[in-house]
Task: structure prediction
Amino acid sequence: MAIYSGPVVLSLLLLVSACVTNFIPETNEDNNILVVEGLITDQYRTNVIKISTSFPLGKPMGAKPLKGCQVTITDENNISYNLKESFFGRYITDSTEFRGHVGGTYTLRIVAGNLTYVSSPMEMLPVPPVDSLFYEKEVIVESNEWGRPEEGCQIYLSTYDQLNNCLYYRWDFTETWEFQIPYPVPNSRCWITEHSDNIYIKNTSVYSQAKVTDFPLHFVSNATDRLNVKYSILVNQYSLSEDEYNFWEKVQNVLENVGGLYDVTPVTISSNIHCLTNPEEIVLGYFSVSAVSQKRLFIKDSFSGLPVLYRYNRCFGDTIWGNADIPGLNVYAWVIEDYITYKIITWEKDCADCTTRGTLVRPSFWDQ
Amino acid sequence: MKVKYLIFGLLAMAISAMAGAQERYPVKWDYKGQSFTEFVSKCEVSFPVRFFYNEEWIRDYKLGDYEGELTVTDILDSLFLGKSMYYYADDHQNIVITKGFAIKKSEKAAAEQEKYIPGNDYTGTSEENKIAGNVVVDIGNPSDKNKPGNVVISGYITNTDTHEAIAGATVFIPRLSAGTISNEYGFYNLTVPRGSYSLRYSFIGMKERVVDINLYGAGELNIEMKSTLVPLKETVISADKNVTLQRFEVGVERINITSFRLMPTAMGESDIIKSILLIPGVQSVGEGSAGFNVRGGSADQNLILLYSAPVYNSSHFFGFFSAVNSDIIKDVTLYKGGIPSRYGGRLSSVLDIIPREGNKREFIGNAGISPITTHVVVEGPIKKDTISYILAGRTTYSNWIFGLIENPALRNSMASFYDINARVAYDIDKKNKADLSAYHSHDAFRFNSDTTYKYENNIVTLRWRHFFSSRFFSGISLNNSSYKYDISSERVPQESFILSHKINSTNLKADLNWYPGSRNEINFGADLSRYEVLPGSFVPKGDSSIVQSDVIARQRALEPALYIEDKFIVTDYLSVNAGLRLSSYFAFGPQSILIYDPSYTKSVSSVIDTLNFGKLDNYKTYAGPEFRLSANLRLNDNSSFKVNYNRTRQYLHLLSNTISISPSDTWKLSDYNLKPQVGDQFAAGYYRMLNKNKIEASAEIYFKEIKNLVDFKGGTDLIMNTNIERDLVNVEGKAYGVEFLLKKPEGRLRWSVGYTYSRTLIKSTSSFSEERINGGKWFPANYDKPHDLILTLNYLYSRRISFSANYTYSSGRPVTYPVASYKIGDIVLTHYSERNEYRLPYYSRLDLSLKLSGNLKSKKIAHPHWIFSLYNALGRENVYSVYFKNEKNVIKGYMLSVFGRPIPSVSFNFDF
Result:
């Protein structure tokens, strides 16, 4: 289990005088390592195996796909299924032809040029449905500069496998929220969707029941506009084998539980895929096999002390009187308030058009 | 034999030497209530004796009603008992009364080859005597004056005020550049040619004493030394001058406890661990990190002894404070090489903390307050001159500070510690002393009312010292030391748990010191430790918890050792210290052991057998000799050359995969899969006194090899890990370095400059490629900091004002950087470079402190003093660690500085 003391120590340090500065390390880039990531589920959907090489540090992700590989998945009955190459190093299953099933054991095999890579056989374990997904308001600041408390939203998850089959859990989630620009502009109401990029895991093998109670899945702070109108979270619950759980736990220790006094010595966590042709070659990534269950939660509530994201002083660029032309309209300047005698313009597109951040398309699952 | 007093300044008293017979005269008159002077007059009338004394000493003495028929000497015995007054009755009917030291005659006459060295003129006219002081003592029979050979002068050094033995006092003969240091019983032993000398007795915080002697034969000279009332008075005392030349070992450092108190502090607390970081060859991973590294050894290779028992966790509050309260420390010695054979069980160093015994004469105390802690110490006699106690406590009020914070998360947090030390010392009689000591330390912290961490050290020691004769001592100690921590969480009642780890050791040690003849000093004994380790237990807390109890089987072992060591003076210029420690280790059941197929890396699938051992079955034994050798070659009066070889074995390991050791690291005993660590150190040093012996210069070089070190496969949790051997990687280490030190330890302006160049390298030895860190090549250890420069300065401006400054520069420690990143889903992961391929920026820190004392009137009820400190005066953001986090799909690097700006603090202390 992870006994995580990082934040404790760090917070105490901040009381003293710790300080953190960021930097970009200059290292000899080593970016030709094979990366394999993929997930086989029990759902009727296209399973994707992505094959690429690692990318250099400090720059946004630039995929370097590896094309022309032969990718095969073999099940417990030794029946092989060949994946089709899609684009950008994506190798996909046909959702009508291939579907994982609970109890099955799958092995990934990749032939890239004259090198062959193979994964450990991974068993698909059953996953129970998410029992409950709920939130609680949490006070972040008791009294802000206007004398009001500030609240955030802590989302919890509980789940229970009565059959005691699913001992190790992993979750990821997709957040979608609606936001509104407070000006009468054409594109004022949009939706944003973001995927989680942290590791959420739980080991219930130390309990007498495969039960997760009030797992603090995600904290929505008031520093964004997620809570202003309406918010939704869709959680995927995965069942992990002990091996895969150990992999994620190690990744979490090295990647997330850092920045304190007791950081672990960083190392690369080894994958479940190895090269048959050249056993010394490092392979990154993980081939996951899991059953999936899902649950969605909507939050439309009033939270105290939410900051207004679009402050007038930030958005208000200039006031144009009468019907004078606005130079650079829709290129450098946008109208956010249009009156008969004058218009208020902004130089920030965010203030005038919600599509810079989100989409105008209402998600199918979104009710009024 | 005659005794002569030459008293300068205070009084002039006629001294004459007379011939006569013995003094066993029964006193028949009623002496009760007589003043001492009356008694003496009556004696001198009744018997053919003459008394010599200073009237000031005995002015208030009245004779009591003693039982039975007593002789003159019986009465003197009763009268002077416990009063630091002594008498000496010679063969010529003279009774000489001395204060502060005793003269004893030894019948031993050494028969060797050298001749009497004629002294300076000691009749009182020479300059030497005027400087030297007030006493000339004859030792031995003047008729032996011209006999050949060296003779031994020995005796005990005690503190006049507290009657404690003074360990580590320097006895030095400037004319011969010969000297020694008193042992833990306050006993000293010096072999020199016959002659006339000045003997200097000095100790930090004590008034120096100088005794002129005419040494005709072997004899004893017991000395009492006075504490300087105000610590700053020590401006005039001379420290361990020249004695570095005399010591046998290479790499032994005694910490000057008074300079230590003047050291700048980070949070107003004097800290013993922080102060040893100023010694060349001692480093730490970073500030605020618990533990220290000695000559390339890991933090668990240091044996920290308090009350002769090991301290398993040496820090409070995440390493910001030492676990041992400095109020109770009398003296600290760090052995970074040249470890005497009486110490064992750890590889790199021994930090022996000798606590004080408590004042046997009067009640005194000290209390202080600093930004984070407050402390108080009281001591005094329970029975005057016989039984004393000392009680010290320290605590934080940081919880109160947390309560004031607006942030609700921090307000629900807490971090606190306290520690208590207590000791009772009993001088049963002249030959027997006993003491009972106890130590308890406690830490607790919690973040946002979630998980609570608690850890504590406990030590109890009973010690009995018996003096068979003035040349044969014994000390027997029985101690128990334990460390445990509990981590508990009650956030969700269903998942509430308590996670604990515990180590408990009991040690019985018999240590004997024997000084046969003049050339040998033999130390031998037996040492038996029993260990019990609870690797981990994870149990539910509360009724609604569904946590399944999981308790990893306890480990039990015995570590017996026998040792002997002889400090042997071969010639005047060569002395040798040869020691042997036979160390052994027996692991006992009940235990079940997994046997792995050696041709595969250890994992679930490579288990080939399980062995079950019942209670008390010995399932694994390790044993081996440890040789400890050193030689000291005195090149001339002010320089010497020493060499040293040390082997050490360690059966107890601290499992830590973090950069610095953490309170939740676990201890593990050697077993089937974890072999004992074995270290060999070779060291040599050159020592020289410069500038009329005012400056000590030294250069030491060392090379060290360590076998059976452990490292870990990445990222694993080591707590509650049942099969920890699967995550261990075998590595070996080597370290080498050269240490230079220039030091002016005395005077109003004291300073030191130390520079160390050292490397510590590690190599994995596994034959499996997945266990080979950096492909089996040598790589630098986490604490490998090649360049290390330390400057210290103390300026004692006046008795009330002193200033001190420290400056530290060192190379940055090695770190591992990510070299590439990759994604699994939306999670960005990192791929790391070769272990420790890069380095942090260099480390540089200046600390300043100013100590102000209140006025020095000795009758004042309390003596206050203030210490103002400025830690990291340059405000440099010294990087403690770097880490990398995924921020919006970009891996960003962050540098964490623990003390990123100057930290001022003030502490207030007063003695009462």
About this structure: The first strand of chain A starts at residue 19 and ends at 23. The CA atoms of residues 85 and 146 of chain A lie 57 Å apart.
